[in-house]
């Protein structure tokens, strides 16, 4: 997962420890897909304690060789299908304004599920610092 995040050019890169820990401690709210023993895609997320009916998706990463094949959307559908059994009915995530690929992916997932995608200002670039672009909050409900 760390290598996919590193090579993506758009995801904030966390330590390899963070990705291993995420897989171990948040496996119920995350998805990893492998091809021939190699991780080629992942979704990391968590159930918000204050909103047990909401999954917050932290990162979606797809290996460069697998991009453009709908893998990210399939991973999100898989996660939402699995979490529906736990009463999760809403997805939230943050997306920077220039990440049109993610905006399209989350829009497609919302349409496929007959749901609505909305967005609002969330985290300003000043708050995030270090030249980080603002992050808007997207909700599928």
From TrEMBL:
Give the matching PROSITE patterns. Answer: GNAT (PS51186)
Broad enzyme group: transferase
N-acetyltransferase domain location is: 1-135
The reply on keyword Magnesium is: no
**Name assigned to this protein:** L-2,4-diaminobutyric acid acetyltransferase
Q: EC annotation?
A: 2.3.1.178
Q: Recorded GO terms, molecular function?
A: diaminobutyrate acetyltransferase activity
Q: Which UniProt keywords apply?
A: Acyltransferase, Transferase
Q: Which GO terms describe its biological process?
A: ectoine biosynthetic process
> What Pfam families does UniProt report for this protein, alphabetically?
Acetyltransf_1
Pathway field of the UniProt record reads: Amine and polyamine biosynthesis; ectoine biosynthesis; L-ectoine from L-aspartate 4-semialdehyde: step 2/3
The cross-references to InterPro entries, in alphabetical order and at most eight, read:
Acyl_CoA_acyltransferase, Ectoine_EctA, GNAT_dom
Question: Hey, which family's this protein in?
Answer: Belongs to the acetyltransferase family. EctA subfamily.
